[in-house]
Design brief:
There is one protein chain. The protein has 100 residues and is of the alpha+beta class. The protein folds into two domains: 33 residues, no CATH class; 65 residues, N-terminal domain of TfIIb. 38% of the residues lie in helices and 15% in strands. The protein has a four-stranded antiparallel β-sheet with strand order 1-2-3-4, with no helix packed on it. Strand 2 and strand 3 form a beta hairpin. The termini are far apart.
Length: 100
């Protein structure tokens, strides 16, 4: 049996696919296998399929990130980044349409 101390779960790929790809797979699988917290009640959520999660405590089924649920701090940062995006005003859109 081959030891997979550094590559962990990506050791199953052996020397195929390159080092960086195996490291990315390892990182995703480590995050995916951790207990995920429900975004509503902070109970334990289980991944049913790609992006579909169900909380064991409150029973809610919801769609969110594919492999793992973000922590509270990460979701706040994502929301702030979305709010900071500049929106195109109607004047800018009308000016573009008039040029064509």
């Amino acid at each position: 049996m081959v030891r997979t101390k550094k590559v962990k779960s990506a050791g199953r790929f052996g020397s195929r696919y390159g080092r960086s790809v195996r490291q990315k797979v390892r990182d995703v699988e480590i995050n995916q296998r951790k207990k995920q917290n429900c975004i509503f009640c902070k109970g334990v959520a289980k991944r049913l399929s790609k992006g579909i999660w169900q909380c064991k405590k409150c029973g809610k089924k919801f769609a969110h990130h594919t492999f793992f649920l973000p922590k509270k701090e990460e979701s706040k940062v994502l929301k702030e980044q979305e709010l900071k995006k500049p929106e195109k005003s109607k004047k800018q859109i009308n000016l573009k349409n008039n040029k064509n």
